[in-house]
Structure formats: C-alpha cells, structure tokens
C-alpha cells in the first residue's frame, strides 16, 4: 500500500485536532460567531469520531457542508475575497477537512492548512504575543506532520523533535528575514477601519478635549536622540496648529499653503533625533519645534506643521532635525495674520475690555501687550487642574475672572483670546510636551497624557513667538510633567503616577522589549535592509541583484548539504555493499534476507531452504552460502577488516549461482 | 574455534541437568560476563542443582541462602559477636562470603534483606559495622524468585532487577529429558562426584578474555538502534538504560566466546536479548503477554541491522 493511502490512526487524529485547535483559537475574535460555533461543533465531532471510533460522515454530506459554509461566509461579508472572508473560509475548510481524515495525505493537507491559518493571524496583529503563540502552534503542527509520517513515538518526543527541527531552521529563517528583498509598504493592504478607535489629538480643540487624553497612557511616539536629551522645558512636539476660532472650539484651517522646504533660517544648535510614530489615523507628523528637515513623502504647511501625503495608518519612523532657536514668519503673509486676529462678533466682554484697554495704552507695541498678558495671567492666580468646572457661554471670562481653574486648553485658548482682543495675531498650537526617558533602552517615550496646547503670538520683527500660558501659572507642568502640576487627589493615569515604582519599572522593561520588536522586526524596512547591506559592503543593491545573490547563496548551501548527505550515504561499508548484492540475488530465488537477520542465521536458513529442490542446486551451494556469510560476518563485525578477505568475498559472490 | 574447557564444562552440566542446553549456556555466559543471574521459575525444576553444578565444575565455593520473610541483613552479611576471652567483638562472616551464592526465593524476603544482598552484588564488598570487607573472587550470585503473582512475595523493584545481568527461566523439561532424568542415577550423588574442570584463576582469565571480544562499530550501532527503538516505542513504559546496553553487549561477548569467536555478531546479541531485556522492559499495557522470547522477537523484528 502506498504511504499516502495509509489510514489515519487515532493518535494522528488527536494530533491533527490539537493543531487545528491551536491554529484557529487565536482567530476567534476575527471570525463571525456562527462560524466559531460551527467550527467548534466540527472539532467536537472530530473528537467524538476519534474517541468512539465511529465511521466518518459520508462524502455528500461534507460537500453540502462546504457549500453551506462558503455561502454563509459570502452572506456575512458579501464577498469571499479579502482578508477576513478568506480567513473565515480557511476555518470552514479546516473544520470540514478534519471530518474527512481518510488517508495519510488528508492528514498532511490538514497540517498544511494549519500552517496557513497561523500565517493568517499576522494579517490581524503582529505583536510579540501573537508571534509567540504562532511559534508554539508551528511547533505543534510540525510535530503533527512528524506524527503523520510515524505515529509510534511518544508525543513528548515528537514535540521535542519538532522543536529541534525548527531550531535548526532558525538560522535559515534569520538569513531570509535579513536578506530577502523587502518591498515598500506592507504586502497586503490593511483595511481603512483599522485605526478608527485610536486615541490621539484631533484637528479641533474644545474645552475638555485634551483633558480627556490625559487619562490615557497609550504611547503616541518614541524618540531616540542622537545626542543628549534636551531639557524637559524645550520638548515641545508640534502638532496641529489651530488659528480658526468659532467661539467655542479651535480648528485647523482647511485651506493651507505648503512648503516643500523649510522657510526659516537655521540658527543655533540643531537637535537630531529619530522618531517612531504610532499610527494615529491623521495626516500630521509630530516634530520638535521648529522642524528643520522634512520626513520623506511629506510637506510643511504654512503654519510649520509637517504633514504626510497619506494618513498615518502604519507605524512610521523618520529621522528629524530641529532648530530650537530658529524664528519663523518674520515676513508673514497678511492673510495668515488676519486669520490670527479673527474673533467672533461678541462674547467675553470683560476680556475684550481689557484687550481694548491695552491696545489703547500700548498701540502697536505687540511686545508690551504680550508682557501685559503674561502679567495678567500671573496676577489672576490661575489653577491648573484636570477637573475644571463647567464654563458658561463666555468661557474666557469665566476662566480668567470667576472659576480661575482650567486645563492647558483653557490657558491656551484664553491667552490667544486676550492677545487677539488687543490686536496681536496669535494662535493655538496643539501637540505634546515633555515625555519620559525609558532608562532601559534610552528612548524618550511620549504618551497621550503628555498632550498639551500652547500658543504662538506674532511680534513684528521677531515673527512667531511661542508662549506657554500654562507655564506661567503651573511651571512644574513644563519642567517636570503634568502629574507634578495637578493638585493632589486628582485621578491620574497609572503610568503618570509617582508611586508604584516597581510596576513602572516592569512596564518600562516591557515597553523597551516592545519597542525593540517594533524597531527591528516590524520596522525592518527597505531602508534598514539597505543600511545593513551597506554595512556588509554591498553598496546600493537593487532587488534584482539581491534576489540573484540570495538564490545563489541558498542554492550553494543546498548543494553543499546534498553533497554532504550523499557522501555520507555513499560511504557504505564495501563488505555490506557486497552482502547486499548477494542477498538481492538470493531474494530473486525466493529467499529474501530479512533486514534484522544476522548473516549466519540467514546463511543457515538459505542453505537449508527447500531441500526438495536440492537436485536443482549447485552441489556446493550450501557450503558456498555459509562461506560467504562467514566471510561477510568477519569483515563487518570482526576486528581489522582484511583487504584480501574483501576480495575473496567479492569473488565468491561473483562466482555464486543461487 | 570453541574453547575445549568451556565445552567440557557445558557437557558436564548438561549431563546432570537434562534438556536445558540453552539456559545452561546463558548461565555460563552470565558468569563469564561477571554478571549475576536471576532465575524465575517454579520450585523443583533444578535451580539449586544448576547453581550447585556450576560451582562444582568451576571449582568454586558454594553457599545457599534461603530467603524468608523474617530475614535480617545480618543473616546474609554476618554479625559481630562479643568474645569474652579476648574482650572484643569478632566478626562472624555471613553466608555471602563465598564464591557462588544461591539466593533462594529472594522475593520472599523483605525489601531490607533484599537490598543487603543486592548492594553486596553491586559493590562486590560488604560493609558491616563500619568496616568494609571484600567478597571472594570470582563472586557470582544466582538468585531465584517465585513467579511474582504468588502470595507472600515482595516483588523486586525495577532498579534492583536491573542489577541482574540476565534473567532466565528453566521450565519443565521435555518428556524425553524428563524420562531420562527419572530413569537415571541420583543427581545429588552425581554432583558430589563431579570434579572441577578449571581453577578459579583460569575462570578469571576467561572473564578477562570475554571482555576482550571485539565489538565492531557496526555491532555497537546495532545495540544502540535496539535501545533507541525501545526508547521511542509506545509499547514500553521506559526504554533500555545505558546500563542495560552495557549488559547486552557484555553477555553477547560471552556468548561469542562460548561460540569460539573473537568478535560479536548480531546473532549473539539476538540470542541473549530475551534474557537481558525481559526483566528490564515493562510493557505499557500491563495485560500484554510478557513472555521474554515474544518481547525479544518483537524487538528484533522491529530493528533492521544497521
């Protein structure tokens, strides 16, 4: 019977069930509930079939079930193409294939399906736990393949062998990972809805919107500085700039011009860093003020905000240079200044009155008005808090003169309002301020709770000047972090708290591991590959020459391995080779050598075989057989095999007529 | 060339114990390989006679210890007794201080007494009351045990069974041999009349010669293949230990020497396999037939010669 037609044993069936379970369990969140239920039933049926050794369901039923499953998937998604429907279909096939384990080839096909499903998991998540789980499933599935070939060894032994084989394949995998030509972008398009639930800054700011972010310790981006980390008070990560105000919320201007090159003079010392941005589903890219270079595939808006051509839906890494001392917009266009002065027709009468007073007092002296505004904020003894009271229609008045309590968006909004009412162009800048250096890997980690809003005022002759009104009232927000600035007793996100140092330490380590994974495994892009190859001495390789080199390399390794194995196989004991010739000739006469039979035992059996035909044998046949076997036994098992003995054996075998 | 002295020894024993050529040959092989022998069989099939004859024909001292459930280690090893005249303790050696010991019905004794014997077997010395005393050389233990399902037995654990190089069964003689036995002369007298064929010194030389029998790499591959198979096969609870492999090789060498060869053949390994593996491999399925020959045959047929 051919090997592929052997029936599937119970042990093999259990193995396959284990693999199928391991491969499909992680997919439960991705596939529809009815399919989870149906596949669970199929698995349970498989277990019952194996347990009680029932007959397999008839073929026509399986065909019907396959059609039903496919129709079900189509009705669910209105297509059977694409990521999720494809995976759902694979689950259908796997579950039904388990009910069709007739022969060894079905077992192999099922195991291969399991490998495919493992691959499918990576279409949904690519985190470290996913990879670990997938590695485990691959060990189990490989053990299943081993069991499909030979189910006698103990399961523990199969698992160990499978692990060993995969460990042996590891260097090859690493080589392929590092050298296989990379393509730009992911291999498969990720669906547009993937980042709908991601938190982060939006293109508008209303009271409470940033305070809400302060409750999240999700990571916004990570930064690795080329030199020392600049002081905390300089870490202003510029995000969306919001000049438009409708009386309640601040917005990004829809129509903005763009620069393809940075429009300001490079003065002072630059700061170089590499930023790894978590996907946030928006166009803007964060940069330390003021951005000196532009990431690839991006441009700079007229309010100095780098924006990507496409929304950031994948983790993105770019190197940047910042000019902290640069000043921008000395000859700002009138339309932008006009927008930065616009206020609604009425509201906030007290603030407006103060602004008008300053205007009357100082005239066009913007710097003096700025100083007056800062002085006002200082005098009002404003309190920085996560839980400001609700404001009425005149928000700025309420904040500045009544409640005097607010979060950074209140400070920024009020400051811009005051300046605009005194005739000084000003706007709100949102972004992140500060960050925390992870001592484990030295990356500066900026989290959502570092979200901040500050202001820019335009002073003639100096251009846009950054003023952070929060820093006036709560300097510790800028110098250390926001947790230090809010009054005691307010609810803080876990990681922003100062206590529980060991948990924070643990979290830091975990984050460093995740960051390493992101940087080196998921972030191993064509650029990194080119850098690596360049460091190996390959300058500017294109993917064609890389493919060629890789094929030559793999081909060479395979050829070498084959040659080595062949050489080992060819190094058969010459006595054994002669003996095999001899036994092959005996087999033709109906006396087959059993592979476990010793030479003398075989000779005894062969010499006395079929005595009734003795008349047809050569007269000295029995003697010759015994002699050949004796010679062979001495050559193979005796000490110091003799070349003359070997010659004699060969001659005897050549002369022998069975 | 077969060694004439060994042939003569075998002939002498076969003259007294009839129709048991194979077990007798195995017993001699065990002695040549410096191992100890376990015989599991019913009473009255000639176990004691075999031990006795072996000792006589090889010119060795012989002692018999009948194991009972109230036996203490001192009953085997010996004890120190206070001597009033000299005012000191004097060690009185137990029955184990001899060259051939027949430990009869070893599984009747408690584990404590059993372990006293088994330790002496392994170390070839006795430590009693803080003093170590070497046992005579050569030292050979033939232990008998009743089939373990009988009432009032303490079965030997696997670790202690492993100390016996071989386990054989004698079984009932075939009718022709039994008839000859019944018609023949008195066995006890025949044993008493036996003369030693070789001196103990010569026996130790033969033991050295056994060790020198050549085992080729191909043969060692075969022994390893057998062990590997038992380790990966679902048939047995555990595979053969390295000690079992050493035992197999040692007995196969003795078997080859008895056959007059200076190298071991796979046939030798296969011939001694039942005696070596039957008490070392425990089937996973306890109800399976544990007949030594069947176990060995299944193992042999599962492993091709390398």
CATH superfamily of the largest domain in chain B: P-loop containing nucleotide triphosphate hydrolases
- State the order of secondary-structure elements of chain B, H for helix, E for strand: HHEHEHEEEHEEEHEHHHHHHH
Radius of gyration of chain A: 38 Å
Q: Identify the overall geometry of chain A.
A: elongated
Q: Ranges of chain B with pLDDT <50 over ≥5 residues?
A: none
Largest sheet of chain A: 5 strands, antiparallel
CATH architecture of the largest domain in chain B: 3-Layer(aba) Sandwich
Structural class determined from secondary elements of chain A: alpha+beta
Name the biggest interface: A-B, 20 and 21 residues
Compose a concise summary of this entry:
The complex is a heterodimer of chains A (658) and B (306). With 658 residues, chain A is of the alpha+beta class.
Task: Write structural notes for this entry.
The complex is a heterodimer of chains A (658) and B (306). Chain A is an alpha+beta fold. Helix content of chain A is 49%, strand content 12%. Chain A folds into three domains: 2-168, no CATH class; 204-501, no CATH class; 574-655, no CATH class. Chain A is built from 23 helices and 18 strands. In chain A, the strands form five sheets. In chain A, strands 11-7-2-16-15 form a five-stranded antiparallel sheet, with no helix packed on it. In chain A, helix 1 (10-24) packs antiparallel against helix 2 (33-52), helix 1 (10-24) runs parallel beside helix 5 (104-121) and helix 22 (621-637) packs antiparallel against helix 23 (643-655). With 306 residues, chain B is α/β, with parallel strands linked by helices. Chain B folds into two domains: 1-203, 3-Layer(aba) Sandwich (Rossmann fold); 212-306, Helicase, Ruva Protein, domain 3, CATH 1.10.8. In chain B, 46% of the residues lie in helices and 14% in strands. In chain B, strand 3 (78-83) and strand 4 (88-93) form a beta hairpin. The mean pLDDT of chain B is 85. Classes of the chains: A alpha+beta (658), B alpha/beta (306). At the A-B interface, helix 21 and helix 22 of A face helix 10, helix 12 and helix 13 of B.
């Amino acid at each position: 019977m051919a090997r592929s037609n052997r029936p599937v044993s119970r042990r093999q069936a259990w193995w396959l069930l284990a693999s199928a379970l391991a491969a499909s369990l992680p997919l439960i969140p991705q596939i529809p509930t009815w399919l989870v239920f149906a596949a669970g039933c199929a698995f349970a049926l498989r277990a019952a079939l194996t347990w009680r050794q029932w007959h397999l369901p008839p073929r026509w039923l399986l065909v019907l079930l396959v059609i039903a499953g496919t129709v079900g998937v189509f009705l669910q998604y209105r297509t059977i193409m694409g990521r999720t429907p494809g995976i759902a279909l694979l689950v259908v096939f796997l579950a039904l294939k388990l009910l069709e384990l007739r022969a060894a080839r079905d077992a192999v096909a099922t195991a291969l399906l399991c490998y495919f499903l493992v691959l499918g998991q990576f279409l949904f998540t690519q985190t470290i736990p996913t990879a670990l789980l997938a590695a485990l499933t691959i060990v189990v599935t490989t053990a299943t393949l081993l069991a499909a070939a030979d189910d006698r060894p103990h399961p523990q032994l199969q698992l160990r062998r499978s692990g060993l084989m995969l460990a042996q394949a590891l260097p090859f995998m690493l080589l392929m990972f590092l050298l296989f030509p990379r393509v730009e972008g992911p291999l498969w398009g990720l669906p547009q809805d993937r980042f709908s639930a991601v938190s982060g800054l939006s293109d508008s700011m209303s009271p409470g919107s940033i305070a809400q972010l302060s409750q999240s310790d999700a990571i916004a981006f990570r930064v690795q500085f080329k030199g020392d980390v600049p002081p905390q008070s300089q870490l202003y990560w510029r995000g969306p700039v919001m000049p438009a105000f409708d009386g309640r919320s601040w917005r990004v201007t829809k129509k903005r011009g763009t620069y393809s090159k940075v429009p300001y003079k490079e003065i002072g010392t630059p700061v170089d860093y590499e930023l790894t941005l978590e996907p946030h589903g928006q166009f803007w890219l964060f940069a330390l003020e003021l951005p000196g270079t532009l990431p690839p595939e991006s441009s700079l808006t007229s309010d100095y905000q780098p924006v990507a051509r496409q929304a950031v839906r994948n983790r993105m890494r770019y190197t940047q240079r910042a000019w902290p001392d640069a000043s921008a917009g000395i000859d700002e266009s009138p339309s932008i200044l006009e927008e930065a002065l616009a206020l609604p027709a009425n509201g906030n009468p007290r603030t407006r009155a103060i602004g008008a007073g300053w205007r009357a007092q100082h005239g066009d002296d913007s710097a003096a008005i700025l100083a007056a505004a800062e002085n006002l904020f200082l005098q009002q003894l404003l309190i920085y808090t996560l839980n400001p009271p609700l404001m009425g229609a005149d928000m700025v008045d309420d904040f500045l003169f009544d409640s005097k309590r607010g979060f950074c968006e209140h400070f920024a909004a009020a400051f811009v309002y005051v300046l605009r009412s005194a005739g000084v162009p000003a706007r709100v800048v949102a972004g992140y301020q500060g960050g925390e250096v992870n001592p484990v890997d030295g990356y500066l980690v900026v989290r959502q709770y570092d979200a901040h809003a500050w202001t820019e005022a335009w002073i003639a002759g100096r251009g846009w000047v950054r003023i952070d009104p929060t820093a006036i009232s709560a300097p510790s927000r800028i110098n250390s972090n926001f947790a230090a600035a809010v009054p005691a007793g307010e609810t803080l996100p876990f990681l922003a708290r100062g206590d529980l140092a060991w948990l924070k330490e643990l979290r830091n380590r975990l984050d460093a591991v995740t960051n390493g994974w992101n940087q080196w495994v998921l972030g191993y892009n064509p650029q990194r590959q080119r850098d690596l190859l360049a460091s190996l001495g390959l300058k500017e390789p294109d993917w064609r020459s890389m493919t060629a080199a890789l094929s030559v390399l793999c081909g060479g390794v395979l050829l070498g391995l084959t040659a080595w194995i062949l050489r080992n196989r060819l190094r058969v004991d010459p006595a054994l080779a002669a003996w095999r010739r001899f036994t092959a000739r005996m087999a033709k006469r109906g006396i087959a050598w059993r592979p476990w039979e010793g030479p003398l035992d075989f000779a005894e059996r062969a010499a006395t075989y079929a005595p009734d035909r003795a008349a047809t044998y050569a007269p000295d046949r029995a003697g010759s057989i015994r002699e050949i076997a004796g010679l062979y036994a001495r050559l193979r098992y005796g000490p110091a095999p003799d070349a003359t003995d070997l010659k004699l054996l060969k001659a005897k075998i050549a002369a022998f007529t069975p | 060339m077969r060694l004439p002295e060994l042939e003569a020894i075998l002939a002498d024993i076969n003259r007294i114990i009839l129709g048991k050529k194979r077990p007798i040959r195995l017993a001699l092989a065990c002695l040549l390989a410096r191992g100890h022998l376990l015989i599991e069989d019913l009473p009255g099939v000639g176990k004691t006679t075999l031990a006795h004859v072996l000792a006589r024909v090889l010119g060795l001292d012989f002692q018999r210890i009948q194991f009972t459930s109230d036996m203490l280690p001192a009953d085997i090893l010996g004890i120190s007794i206070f001597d009033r005249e000299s005012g000191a303790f004097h060690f009185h050696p137990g029955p184990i201080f001899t060259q051939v010991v027949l430990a009869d019905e070893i599984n009747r004794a408690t584990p404590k007494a059993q372990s006293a014997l088994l330790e002496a077997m392994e170390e070839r010395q006795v430590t009693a009351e803080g003093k170590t005393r070497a046992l005579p050389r050569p030292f050979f233990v033939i232990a008998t045990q009743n089939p373990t399902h009988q009432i009032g037995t303490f079965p030997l654990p696997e670790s202690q069974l492993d100390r016996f190089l071989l386990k054989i069964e004698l079984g009932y003689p075939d009718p022709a041999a039994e008839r000859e036995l019944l018609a023949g002369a008195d066995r006890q007298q025949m044993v008493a009349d036996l003369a030693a064929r070789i001196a103990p010194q010569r026996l130790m030389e033969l033991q050295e010669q056994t060790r020198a029998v050549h085992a080729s790499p191909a043969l060692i591959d075969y022994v390893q293949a057998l062990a590997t198979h038992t380790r990966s096969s679902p048939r047995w609870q555990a595979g053969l230990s390295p000690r079992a492999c050493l035992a197999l090789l040692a007995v196969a060498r003795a078997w080859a020497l008895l056959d007059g060869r200076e190298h071991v053949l796979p046939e030798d390994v296969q011939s001694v396999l039942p005696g070596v593996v039957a008490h070392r491999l425990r089937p996973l399925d306890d109800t399976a037939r544990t007949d030594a020959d069947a176990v060995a045959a299944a193992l042999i047929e599962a492993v091709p010669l390398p």
